[in-house]
Design a protein that fits this description.
The complex is a heterodimer of chains A (272) and B (181). Chain A is 44% helix and 19% strand. In chain A, helix 1 crosses helix 2. Chain A is of the alpha+beta class and 272 residues long. Chain A is built from ten helices and seven strands. The longest helix of chain A has 25 residues, at 109-133. With 181 residues, chain B is an all-alpha fold. The longest helix of chain B has 24 residues, at 21-44. Chain B starts with 20 loop residues before the first helix and ends with a helix. The relative contact order of chain B is 0.12. At the A-B interface, helix 1, helix 3, helix 4 and helix 5 of A face helix 1, helix 2, helix 4, helix 5 and helix 7 of B.
């Protein structure tokens, strides 16, 4: 028998699933007349079975199963991420609770005071919001609002890696979205999308993914709602803003604000 | 066989919005996590790192499951992802991860009637004495009963390379286990 046939027999699965493979059958036939080889293979098989059994006796830590389920639920927005998740994965799973998730509040007496103050503040804020609703706001003001949102963690109403699904969701929900994105940017994978209302202005969010699950948060709002939108058709301005990289540009009447943690140079290259 | 306690997999949910997606993802991970952990442990030699690698793999699966077009490719995807996570971990550590047997919980010594068997500690210890390419091939062969072609896909090497590594690793393993077997 040939060396290749010997290797084939040694690589045959212990469960016997390969025994009907023509090549394995030919190798077995070739080995049939070589008693020493057969004996060696049988000894090796006993060692293999013992090793397989030994490895299957190794049990994972008892808390691993629960940790995996928690991490997966967090990744899909159903729970808080576990503390030991790697930094980049933690960033990937930091999403708010999904609709329908039960949030328990502590209604102790001391908390009531806090809630009352919060309610009063909400009423005051509502009045302020109503006042602001009738006034256009600046690019800087919107940038500050969005920076705060991205720092806290964006909301994704739809989680999908399919570009078409994301685009359809944005369209169906009347969310602002540019008809055309820079080619390299548009080629990236998606993670999901959302529609925000910021000071009465609709702002669409498209979450894109760079290799390594690095997120780009692309916000889009009608340029006419801003007091000082970037000039339509001009190249994107990329700079550092609130400890993050921010790219802003306007195309087809829609102003884009894209936040990420990547270097300014990398984003410039991405936007061409 | 790899693991006699494996639950059967429910069918893959038809769409992203299906309420059964989460249950299906968890069923898949519960089906494979023990074997994935054993593979991770053989790669790292460290229980905490192995648990982390298994967890990163599960999270990636939860986020990227739609990239897996065929149900039959799930197992290979999981092992490939775990192996890539291991390479990433090793690159970040900027040095080869050394097998550290002190992190493995000792298993009770065998009695004379079991002299032809290998316990988990001995198995991991023997694998830990091999270099990573041979250790990886051998573990996938034993833990999941994978074919050499599947192993080649997971590790991204030619099938012939897997066969030759497997042969060399088995010879080395028998030498390592001779006092124990």
């Amino acid at each position: 028998m040939t060396e290749e046939q010997l290797q084939l027999l040694r690589a045959a699965r212990l469960s016997g699933q390969d025994e009907n493979d023509p090549e394995v059958m030919a190798a077995r036939a070739a080995a049939a007349s070589e008693a020493k080889v057969l004996a060696y293979l049988e000894e090796e098989r006993q060692t293999d079975l013992a090793m397989q059994q030994g490895l299957n006796d190794v049990d994972p830590p008892p808390d691993l199963e629960a940790a995996l389920l928690t991490a997966m639920r967090a990744a899909r927005g159903h729970a808080e991420p576990p503390a030991n998740l790697r930094e980049d994965m933690l960033h990937a799973v930091q999403l708010p609770a999904a609709p329908g998730t039960v949030v328990q509040h502590d209604f102790s007496r001391r908390k009531w005071i806090g809630w009352s103050l919060a309610a009063a503040a909400s009423i005051a804020a509502g009045g302020f919001w109503w006042w602001r609703e009738n006034h256009a706001f600046s690019l800087r003001r919107l940038s500050e609002q969005l920076a705060a949102i991205t720092k806290k963690g964006v909301t994704l109403s739809l989680m999908s890696m399919e570009k078409d699904a994301v685009v359809n969701w944005l369209r169906d929900n009347q969310a602002p979205r540019a008809d055309v994105l820079p080619e390299k940017l548009d080629a990236l994978g998606r993670k999901g999308c959302h529609l925000y209302q910021i000071e009465g202005h609709p702002v669409g969010l498209e979450c894109l993914l760079l290799p390594g699950m690095r997120e780009l948060h692309l916000f889009c709002t009608p340029a006419r709602g801003l007091t000082d939108p970037p000039a339509d058709g001009r190249a994107a301005e990329v700079r550092t803003f609130a400890d993050r990289t921010l790219a802003t540009w306007t195309h087809g009447g829609q102003t884009m604000l894209m936040f990420c943690n990547e270097r300014v140079e990398e984003i410039r290259a991405l936007l061409g | 066989m790899p693991d006699e306690t494996q639950p059967a997999l429910p069918p893959r949910p038809p769409s992203v919005d299906d309420a059964g997606v989460q249950a299906w993802l968890e069923a898949v991970v519960l089906r494979y996590y023990r074997q994935l952990y054993r593979y991770a442990l053989s790669l790292t030699g460290h229980e905490a790192d192995a648990a982390d690698l298994t967890q990163q793999t599960a999270v990636k699966f939860a986020l990227k499951w739609q990239d897996i077009r065929e149900e039959g490719a799930i197992k290979s995807w999981l092992y490939t992802t775990l192996y890539r996570e291991f390479l990433l971990l090793r690159r970040r550590a900027k040095e080869t991860v050394e097998f550290d047997e002190s992190h493995l919980a000792p298993i009770a010594p065998q009695n004379s009637a079991q002299e032809a068997s290998v316990d988990g500690y001995t198995a991991m210890e023997a694998l830990g004495k091999m270099d990573e390419p041979h250790r990886s091939v051998l573990t996938l062969f034993y833990v999941e009963d994978l074919s050499y072609r599947d192993i080649a896909d997971i590790l991204g090497v030619p099938a012939g390379t897997v066969m030759s590594r497997l042969s060399r690793a088995k010879v080395a393993l028998r030498q390592l286990l001779t006092p124990a077997v």
